[in-house]
Amino acid sequence: MTDQARPDLSVVIPCYNEAANAAAICAAVIGVLEPLQLSFEILFIDNASTDSTVAIIKDICASDPRVRLIVNTRNYGQMRSPTHAIYQTSGRATIGMCADFQDPPALLPEFVARWQAGADIVLAVRQGEAKNGPALRMMRRLSYWLARNFSDYPVLPGATGFGLYDARVVDAVRQLDEPEPFFRGMLVETGYRLETIPFARPPRAAGKSKNNFPALFDFAMSTLAGSSKRLLRLPIYIGVFGALMAAMMLVGGLAAYLLGRPIAGWFIASLVQAEFALLFGFLGLLGDNVRIISERTRGTPLVLERERINFPAD
Question: What 3-state class would DSSP assign to 60?
Answer without folding.
Answer: helix
